[in-house]
Automatic annotation (TrEMBL):
This is hydroxyethylthiazole kinase. Its cofactor is Mg(2+). Pathway: Cofactor biosynthesis; thiamine diphosphate biosynthesis; 4-methyl-5-(2-phosphoethyl)-thiazole from 5-(2-hydroxyethyl)-4-methylthiazole: step 1/1. It catalyses: 5-(2-hydroxyethyl)-4-methylthiazole + ATP = 4-methyl-5-(2-phosphooxyethyl)-thiazole + ADP + H(+). The keyword Metal-binding applies. One of its GO terms (molecular function) is magnesium ion binding. Keywords: ATP-binding, Kinase, Magnesium, Metal-binding, Nucleotide-binding, Thiamine biosynthesis, Transferase. GO terms for biological process: thiamine biosynthetic process. Coiled coil: none annotated. Its EC number is 2.7.1.50. It comes from the Bacteria. The lineage of its organism: Bacteria, Pseudomonadati, Pseudomonadota, Alphaproteobacteria, Hyphomicrobiales. It comes from Propylenella binzhouense.
Length: 245
């Protein structure tokens, strides 16, 4: 690996070298795209949501993604088993409180998961507003990284805040893009780098791949394969990813 690689590219190179297993509890709409994104960066996805086996999957994984996209009773049971297994095994896990802004009951459940100690929380502006500033500040005080996606991505850690200004408007026209970013954060967290630096690297690299793909795409249909190709090359020497903070 060339010594000149930027920090974000170094993290993606570490992911590719380690090939971490990332178990994803995510919604059915996002599963295939999320799996392909993980494969593109060199990680190994698994997706079982069966409460009877999810703890074993998580215990054998290097990181966990908990995405609330389709919150059925069985999904809630599986999430409880998965979070307990990740905590017991010392695995990093990422919470993506999808649609917490659409349902008070879902927001309450997401706040309980925040209290369970995720390594990182990846969400958008409306979801962040639904959980509340106090909830997210408490999470940061406990060591969680809070990554809020938007036109300018904001990453808040215990002692610092960073802003990443990259990406492309076509990213908002592809379903499951944010869900897949949560999985990339989980993969980067598994490199054993501190959670703040790993999360910033994940957001920077993901956005850089989107910017490059968007510059060549004619629309969302052509964007997706170009985006996967750009993710696949993220650990290459041409990746001098600029950090904005």
């Amino acid at each position: 690996m060339p010594a000149a690689l930027a920090p974000a590219a170094q993290v993606f190179a570490a992911v590719r070298a380690r090939r971490p297993r990332v178990h994803c509890l995510t919604n059915n709409v996002a599963q295939a795209f999320t799996a392909n994104v993980l494969l593109a960066i060199g990680a190994v996805p698994s997706m079982s949501g069966d409460p009877a086996e999810v703890a074993a999957f998580v215990a054998g994984a290097d990181a966990l993604l908990v995405n609330l996209g389709m919150l059925t009773p069985a999904a809630r049971e599986a999430i409880g088993e998965a979070v307990a297994a990740a905590s017991a095994a010392g695995r990093p896990w990422v919470l993506d409180p999808v649609f917490a802004d659409r349902s008070p009951a879902r927001a309450d459940y997401a706040r309980r998961l925040v209290a369970a100690g995720p390594s990182a929380i990846r969400l958008n502006e409306p979801e962040a507003a639904a959980l509340g500033a106090a909830c997210l500040a408490a999470a940061r005080a406990r060591g969680a990284v809070v990554a809020i996606s938007g036109a300018r991505d904001r990453i808040g850690c215990a002692d610092r805040e960073s802003v990443v200004e990259t990406g492309h408007p076509l990213m908002a026209e592809v379903t499951a893009m944010g869900c897949a970013l949560g999985a990339v954060v989980a993969a980067c967290l598994s490199t054993a780098l501190n959670a703040c630096a790993a999360t910033i690297a994940a957001v920077e690299g993901f956005g850089a791949a989107g910017a490059r793909a968007g510059a060549k795409a004619g629309g969302p249909g052509s964007f997706v394969p170009l985006f996967l190709d750009e993710l696949h090359g993220l650990s290459g020497p041409r990746d001098q990813l600029e950090r904005h903070s």
